[in-house]
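2024-03-11 09:14:02 DEBUG pipeline.ingest accepted 1 chain
2024-03-11 09:14:02 DEBUG pipeline.ingest length=256
2024-03-11 09:14:03 DEBUG pipeline.predict start
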Amino acid sequence: MKSFILCADDFAYNQAISASILELIKQQRISATSCMANMPNWPAAAKQLKEFDGQIDIGLHFNVTEGPALTTIAFKPLKKLLIHSFFRTLNQKCIYNELCAQIDEFVKHFGRLPDYIDGHQHVHQFPIIRSALIQAYQCYFPEKKAYIRVSSNGFSWSLKSLIINLSGALSLKRQLTQLDIPHNQSFAGIYNLDPQQNYANLFSSFIKEISDHGLIMCHPANRSSDEIAAARQQEFDFFSGEEFAAVLEKVKLRRF
């Protein structure tokens, strides 16, 4: 029986997403969630999430593209951020300070360090940002008790997967391996977030794509109102329904 981490991203992005993820945790339909500690919803959502501490992996979803910054850094839209990172015009010290502030905010309201770190829109793997990530990790986790999520399952010809790989996923994985920092060895869950696609079929392909003990990301939410709300709704309906219950008879959700 194949086992894997099923991680719901964007906890605390808004109240609807937080409530939906909490419901899936209660149903034992996910085994990890990534939290946006810079978002206004985080303090209240963290209190609710504490009830499930120890049952799932609870990580930091590092964010420098949406919502308010916790330091003086100016957030940039994703495309602009990617361009600046590749031309090495980002200030690593500013990125580091913001990451540390978000880790501190996580600890302030949740009461402990995160089980892992990843990035909203995979920003943690970009040039400059991944260097700040390694620096912060070595500061906060000298005993390497947390893991870093790698958003790659090797080279892929899928356009979105190719972009994610080329934006730094493979480079981050090499660095983590060299530094002996814990990270997932396989990854799935990437698609174009088109709600017209059959998510159940997509998820079946994700399971086939990853190796045992891999990680699948998802973005479920019931009645959210953000730009990808329709895709979130389809994912939530799948994970909370009988079709996924049948899937869970053949696979096992696990923590890292």
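2024-03-11 09:14:41 DEBUG pipeline.report The first strand starts at residue 3 and ends at 11.
2024-03-11 09:14:41 DEBUG pipeline.predict end
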